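User: Hi! I have a protein structure encoded as tokens and I'd like to know what sequence might fold into it. I'm fairly new to this, so please keep things simple.
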């Protein structure tokens, strides 16, 4: 969540407990000031109706902008820059994102009533601007909007918008980092397994791979990055040592091949974490069916919190269709990032 607070005096604004220190606390002489704060929403915030920001000013406006997915839950704010503008100027200054695919946000607070429209940045504008707020009350007005993800890491140039009525104002630009996802599955078929791989399929054989893909693979061909021997050891024990796979706007996938010999059934279990809320993008556990040549769903998670352990599990009562000619089964866990 991002809180935008605007005052018609040079005000020092104090954030409530649990909110970050101010992203900005920018003044324009003695007649206006605007602050931005951020907070990762928790369960108590979903039922909240009001947030109180303390100041001595009587003329003020505020808005809470909530984003449900698509942003880093650990370091959401990347860069910011802003200006205090006189009549006739609405620019924010420029920022240079440090990573690709960040979302640009523009904020204004105006001295006296006005409206806002035509949000843009000067360089490599990603488009898709969606207005968050356009609010006037008495002698103050605030506006804000956010863009599509911007792949460039070059300077944005100035942010701008069109005022309905020219006003002295404070303008700010920030960008929000995209999410990365990570998973550390510990896959445990009912057959006896060892974390060490062998040269040919036999007891102890594992073939663990991972990768990020724009399109979900239809077969069980090994993924682009092999697990190291250390990675295999790490995911063979529930010890919170994780193997991560990041993606932006793609599927992040971990795939596991294990020798199960003459076992007729197995129990699959995956313990992992992701910093993208499963409620906004479901995490799937699947097993590959060699008869239908499709991936069959075993379990899903669409409710866990970000950055907390989740468990996917399921019993495969009959492995007949899931073993290949070498008695190996293939399973995967994946999530589509935004």
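Assistant: Happy to help. Inverse folding works backwards from shape to sequence: for each of the 338 positions I chose a residue that suits the local structure. Here it is:
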């Amino acid at each position: 969540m991002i809180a935008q607070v605007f005052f018609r005096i040079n005000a020092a604004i104090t954030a409530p407990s649990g909110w970050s220190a101010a992203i900005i606390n920018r003044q324009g002489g003695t007649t206006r000031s605007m602050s931005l704060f951020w907070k990762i929403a928790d369960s108590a915030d979903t039922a909240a109706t009001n947030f109180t920001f303390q100041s001595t000013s009587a003329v003020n406006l505020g808005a809470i902008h909530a984003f449900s997915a698509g942003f880093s839950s650990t370091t959401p704010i990347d860069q910011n820059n802003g200006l205090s503008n006189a009549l006739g100027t609405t620019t924010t200054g420029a920022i240079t994102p440090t990573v690709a695919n960040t979302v640009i946000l523009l904020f204004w607070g105006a001295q006296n009533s006005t409206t806002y429209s035509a949000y843009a940045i000067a360089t490599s504008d990603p488009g898709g601007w969606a207005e968050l707020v356009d609010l006037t009350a008495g002698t103050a007005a605030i506006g804000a909007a956010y863009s599509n993800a911007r792949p460039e890491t070059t300077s944005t140039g100035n942010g701008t918008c069109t005022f309905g009525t020219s006003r002295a104002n404070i303008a700010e630009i920030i960008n929000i980092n995209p999410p990365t996802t990570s998973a550390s599955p510990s896959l445990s078929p009912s057959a006896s397994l060892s974390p060490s791989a062998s040269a040919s399929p036999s007891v102890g054989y594992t073939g663990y791979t991972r990768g990020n893909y724009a399109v979900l693979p239809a077969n069980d061909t090994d993924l682009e990055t092999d697990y190291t021997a250390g990675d295999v050891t790490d995911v063979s024990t529930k010890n919170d040592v994780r193997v991560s796979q990041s993606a932006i706007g793609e599927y992040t996938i971990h795939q596991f091949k294990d020798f199960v010999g003459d076992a007729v059934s197995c129990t699959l279990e995956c313990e992992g974490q992701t910093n993208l809320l499963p409620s906004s993008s479901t995490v799937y556990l699947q097993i590959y069916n060699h008869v239908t040549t499709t991936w069959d769903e075993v379990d899903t998670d669409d409710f866990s919190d970000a950055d907390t352990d989740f468990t996917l599990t399921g019993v495969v009562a009959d492995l007949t269709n899931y073993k290949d000619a070498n008695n190996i089964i293939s399973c995967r866990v994946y999530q589509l990032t935004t």
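A useful reference point when you look it over: Helices lie at 229-235. Feel free to ask if any position seems puzzling.
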